[in-house]
Amino acid sequence: MTRLRDPYSLFGLRNYPMNIALKSEDFLARLASGLDARGLVTDPADMAPHLVDWRGLFRGEALAVVRPRTAQEVAGVVAACAQAGVGIVPQGGNTSLAGGSVPAGEGPQIVLSLSRLNAIRTVDKVGMLIEVEAGCVLQTAQQAAAAAGRLLPVSLGAEGTAEIGGIISTNAGGINVLRYGMTRQLVLGLEVVLPDGTLINGLRHLRKDNAGYDWKQVFIGSEGTLGLVTAAVLRLVPAPRHKVTALLAVPSPEAALSLLARAQEEIGDQVSAFELICGLSFDLLARNCDLKAPLAAAPWVVLMQADSCLSGIEEAMESVLAGALEAGEATDGVVAASETQARQLWALREHITEAEQREGPSVKHDVSVPIADMPAFLAEAEAEVARALPGCRANMFGHLGDGNIHFNVLIADGTDKAAVNRTVHDVVAKYAGSISAEHGIGRYRAPELAHYKPQAELALMRRLKGALDPQGLMNRGKVLG
Ligand code: 2HG
Ligand code: ZN
After folding, report:
1. Domain membership flag for residue 84
2. Is 33 exposed, middle or buried (0-12, 13-18, 19+ CB in 10 A)?
3. Is residue 14 pLDDT above 50, yes or no?
4. Is residue 104 included in any domain, yes or no?
5. Residue 180 falls inside a structural domain
6. Ligand 1: distance of its center to the CA of 107 in Å?
7. DSSP bridge pairs for 41
8. Residue whose CA is closest, atom 3 of ligand 1?
9. Ligand 1 within 6 A of 351 CB?
10. pLDDT tens-digit profile of 49-102?
């Protein structure tokens, strides 16, 4: 085993006087005794990918990366950490955009990777649910549901890497929220490990369960700061057999909202995705990813999808598009004629993050405002960026149907990122919006949460944190800072 510095000399005893006698090697040996040979990683090269986020913006240190295979092993590791006063950073696919899954804060910590708990335990076609372990990759769970003729309706760009535990811990959003809701709406049951190592099995296969507090909600979206998700029961829906995808040039966000209203009136809740993308995103896609939209250049573009178990959805979409073109809500449009074409249209949307990353430094904002206020918000926030941050450009794209836009600012080297955040978030606050619609707070937005969240709500959050994690071991430095 690699010899490590003693965590207490490493991080200072002053703040963490819990178990003074404990030495890091004794502690790690104790962890190793309950795990198999691959369960404890201390080699710096093997640990390295777990200590940095995928964008290379957030880095941290850990005593070890611990990789248990079962919920019982997770509980044992957490209990040992609780006894030793060692912090725990839960980690799934490490796809966070908010630095939520790499170590931050002070004191000795381990990264607890859930990736080896990756079994799909049940796919229940009649009960329309799936029971799956936390480390299962979202796409693998989607494929298992599809093989049973069902849909697991969480869909997002990172689905080939993101794991179910992280999806639940961050209450992930994605492109299908408009129709199926956030992850929270899909969770029927959870198995969790509390910060003291208690394992709680709430994996009930029930649609209705009003017997007592719905405690699972506390662990959904709390970003691993209150406990660890080890397995879940998720709701499935019937897999739609007919799907229609359209890309439309629109003159403005106002026009896009009229188009959304038209689509919802004519197609109803079968509109499953409604994404708004600004012209700059297409410049970035062409320049950095060699991807081009099959449309005339436009200030804004809408990517819309509707799906249904019944036929007729294609005709309904065509009628919506004809109406939109006639009313001036759209100036150009294409409808995918095949699954391949639909994938090509979605590839444009899914590559924006990569195209933006390749362009240079950017500051991300994942904000929501009331849907009807989105046009005014976009105009005001863009004007404010131009006024307060000369040389910066707003790359705006996202889930208009959910009132959630990724208002990312491309910055010049040396720009004060905190000032960029404040410029955008002050406009969000003016519209009574949220500074995190779907990516979470993590480490990145913790100072902004402290600034914008009302004191009474922060106090309530601290009471919850104190009740469940009195030692402050879980995901230090995240959410509440
Ligand atoms: C998306 O909607 C993701 O594509 C990522 O939430 C957004 O890169 C981003 O800012
Ligand atoms: Zn998004």
Report:
1. yes
2. exposed
3. no
4. yes
5. yes
6. 32
7. 65
8. 157
9. no
10. 999 999 999 999 999 999 999 999 999 999 999 999 999 999 999 999 999 999
